[in-house]
Each structure stands twice: as structure tokens, then as C-alpha cells.
Amino acid sequence: PPELRWGYLDNLKFDNQKQVMQSMADFLLINIDEFNSISKKTQEGFLKNTIQLASISLKRPYSRRIESELRRASFIATSNMTDVLSDPSGSRRFFVVNVTSPIDTERPINYEQLYAQAIAAVRANERRWFDDKDIEEVMVHNRRYALLSSADMYFNDYFDIALADDPDAMKLTASEIYNYIRKRAGATAVTESLTTFGRYLSNVPKIQKVHTKSGTAYYVKYR
User: Fold this and answer.
1) CA 18, 199, 138 angle in degrees (round to 5)?
2) C-alpha distances out from residue 109 to 1, 45, 105, 112, 195, Å
3) By C-alpha distance, which of 50, 55, 2, 47 is closest to 25?
4) What is the pLDDT of residue 55?
5) Are 161 and 204 in contact (CB under 8 A)?
6) Which of 31, 73, 103, 147 has the fewest CB atoms within 10 Å around its CB?
7) In a 3-state reduction of DSSP, which class is residue 140?
8) CA 180, 181, 185, 188 torsion: positive or negative?
9) What gap in Å lies between CA 114 and CA 117, rounded to an integer?
10) Is the dihedral angle over the CA atoms 38, 198, 140, 128 positive or is it negative?
């Protein structure tokens, strides 16, 4: 709404981490334009950790002390590409909405009613956070927008997930699956480390796992 336009920002550069932290305390809504332009390293590191902060520690200009301030800003983002999420743990901090038609910018938004509904929901103590079931659904939803890694591509080339009672099911550890892929596709085929591959594997939707003497094993079968 016009009264809150001061709180909107859409030209933030993520290579200036100090500016990002300060903006999170000063603004209300930060729009990351062209989300796909953010590097995989930044997305999985700085952005992932920053986006969950409840308070911001920063030193204001001319101040001698580092102060803790309330984090105000929420993040939104836009992209013309669909393969944009690179977090191997499932990108649960994001929720992707696919725009399928032009957005109507002619009809005015009833901001007063919109905010009245939001305030009423808060006062009624309605749940405004994701529970475990919601998080699982978000991660499954977001997989269609994931930036496919070599681990993702080769795992789906050589394996299917299996049920524990499937006669063709095998119990293989992440390292066994990792080594099998490298043997079949070539030693340099999987560019991720074993640790990263294991993190990816543990977040494959509906995959069943069991703890063994050799570590966590996954029920899979050969394609």
C-alpha cells in the first residue's frame, strides 16, 4: 500500500553482506529480482542462513557499538526460469508459485481489507508457521523447481526408490550408491562430494531408510 512503499526494496546486491543485513532491519519486503542470477554458493550459504534470522547484529554508521535489531524484512523473488533452487537439503525456506497468465495490475487492491484479515488472523492466534507435514509438502512441491545436480540426474538414471518389502529392494548406503554411479557413469560424472550426495539422498521424497552397522542405508532397486 502507498503508506508502506518506503519499506519495499528491489535493488539489493547480495555480494554486499553488510548492506543485506542492514536492509533486513530497515525494510519490510525485499524483492530479489531475477533469483536465478544468485550463485549456487550464495543461495546455499549466505542467503540460506540469513533468511532465517530473527534478529540482526549490525554496526550503524558513526556508531561505536554492534547492536542487535529486530529483523523486519521478508523476502520474495522473481525469475523467468523454473530450475532455480539449489539447496540439496530441500529448499524448505522457499515456496515457488508458477505464474501461468498475466497479472492483473489494473484492478486496485483493497489493502485495508487485506490487512484487516491479517490482523484478525493474528489476534485469533491462527497458525502462521509450517508444521512438519507442511514442510514435507513444500519440499516435494519445490523439487520441480530444483536446479538438477549431477547426483540427482544420475541417481534417477540408475536407481528407483523401493519399499522395504519389495523383493527387488536393496539396502545400500550413500557411499555404495555413490560409488556404483561413479563406476557406471565414470569417476568424474558426479561432481558433488560424497557428503553433499548423502545430503541429497536423505531428502529424496518418500525414500525409505534404515540404520545399519555401516550407517544409514536406503531401500532402492536398480533401474
Assistant:
1) 75
2) 8, 36, 9, 9, 47
3) 55
4) 87
5) yes
6) 103
7) helix
8) negative
9) 5
10) negative
User: Is the overall model pTM greater than 0.85, yes or no?
Assistant: no
Residue 123's nearest CA partner among 115, 112, 134, 131 is 115
141-154 pLDDT tens trace: 888 887 767 777 88
For 23, residues 6+ apart whose C-beta sits below 8 A from its C-beta are: 9, 12, 30, 73
Interatomic CA distance for residues 94 and 79, integer angstroms: 13
Identify whether the C-beta of residue 201 lies closer than 8 Å to the C-beta of residue 194.
Answer: no
Amino acid at 24: M
Q: Which helix (H) or strand (E) holds 160?
A: strand 159-161
**Residue 21 cell numbers, joined:** 543485513
Taking a C-beta distance cutoff of 8 angstroms, is the pair 74, 28 a contact? Answer: yes
